[in-house]
Design brief:
The chain is of the alpha+beta class. Helices cover 42% and strands 28% of the residues. The chain is built from five helices and 15 strands. It has helices at residues 2-31, 84-126, 132-171, 276-279, 305-323, and strands at 33-46, 51-54, 59-64, 71-72, 77-81, 174-176, 181-184, 194-195, 200-206, 211-217, 230-235, 246-253, 258-259, 266-273, 293-304. The strands form three sheets. It has a six-stranded antiparallel barrel with strand order 1-10-14-12-11-15. The protein has a four-stranded antiparallel sheet with strand order 2-9-7-4, with no helix packed on it. β13 (258-259) and β14 form a beta hairpin. The chain is rod-shaped. The relative contact order is 0.19.
Length: 324
């Protein structure tokens, strides 16, 4: 009898606890706000195009003056190319110019002498004191000398063009920063490495540029988004518990859809701007770089837990009444 009473007491107490718990849960669920959001994956990108650094002729790396992630000023030296070959070319061309100039001077003197001699022969011919053969011989020599002079002038002009091109190459042997910014994707860091003509050497992210998150939104969610919505950006390359979500704002939504050529997925592009104040929350060893993967939670509204739980029931009831 006593055991039955104790058992009933325990059951009554347990029932009261469960009822109390459920009552507290429903009160909390009725008033506790929960943010609803659209989840989209993407990556960090630049707001403008990064500057590609390349070299027309390419060459052998003699010195690397910068490192990955370094900030550089406009005009600062980046990479120095080996100049042994171009300097040898310049010496060879200058020697050719000097030799041609010497021959040109000698030929001009010979032409002047032939003209004087031909003038004398013409005067003598007036009195029949010489033969026409001598005149024709001088004319032939003069014609050949003038032809040679023309070739020398043309050769000198060609060598001067080569000299100018070689000087330009020598000047470009020091690759300089076209704008201020941060060095990215430095492909050549070894002395003696070969840079192929017109190949990418590195990129510079302009100093007035900043990084934003570009995410892929499911077409089913696109009508839920409007410009200016708040977003939380998670850097998925780091553990969530160690990396705070960054507050951002939805800046743009693409008007047209895009298709992923790899998997055929259709999506809309959305860009989320992250204020500098949020970036300062990151630890010193964390650096945002283009291509870094992110997950964005774009907040579309707020509702209580009870509303969240009742939504599927309400939708099912609505569909049932529609079918009737």
């Amino acid at each position: 009898m006593k055991n039955n009473i104790e058992q009933k007491t325990y059951l009554t107490l347990a029932t009261k606890i469960i009822i109390g718990f459920l009552l507290c849960f429903f009160i909390w669920a009725a008033f506790a706000p929960i943010n609803s959001s659209v989840v989209a994956n993407g990556e960090i990108i630049l707001t403008s195009n990064k500057k590609t650094i390349s070299h027309l002729e390419g060459g052998i790396v003699a010195e690397v003056k910068v490192s990955e992630g370094q900030f550089v000023e406009e005009g600062q030296d980046l990479i120095v190319l080996d100049t042994v070959q171009v300097k040898a070319k310049i010496s060879q061309v200058l020697e050719g110019i000097r030799g041609s100039e010497f021959q040109k001077s000698a030929t001009e003197k010979r032409i002047s002498a032939l003209k004087n001699e031909l003038h004398t022969v013409n005067e003598l011919l007036k009195n029949s004191n010489t033969s026409l053969t001598r005149k024709f011989d001088l004319q032939k020599q003069l014609h050949e000398a003038e032809g040679k002079l023309g070739e020398l002038i043309s050769n000198i002009a060609s060598l001067q063009s080569e000299h100018k091109a070689a000087l330009d190459t020598l000047e470009r042997s020091v690759i300089k920063a076209p704008t201020s910014g941060v060095i990215m994707d430095l492909k050549h860091q070894t002395i003696g490495g070969v840079i192929a003509p017109a190949s990418e050497i590195m990129f510079i992210v302009p100093k007035d540029d900043h990084l934003i998150a570009e995410v892929m939104v499911n077409p089913a969610d696109i009508d839920l988004l409007t410009k200016g919505m708040t977003a939380k950006v998670q850097l998925t390359a780091y553990k969530a518990r160690l990396m705070p979500k960054l507050d951002g704002k939805l800046e743009t939504i693409s008007g047209d859809s895009f298709k992923n050529e790899m998997n055929g997925q259709v999506y809309f592009k959305a860009r989320i701007e992250i204020p500098d104040a949020e970036l300062k929350k990151l630890k010193e060893d964390v650096k945002l770089t283009p291509g870094m993967p992110v997950t964005a939670f774009i907040i579309t509204g707020s509702r209580t837990m009870l509303q969240y739980l009742l939504t599927p029931i309400k939708e099912s009831a609505y569909k049932a009444f529609r079918e009737e």
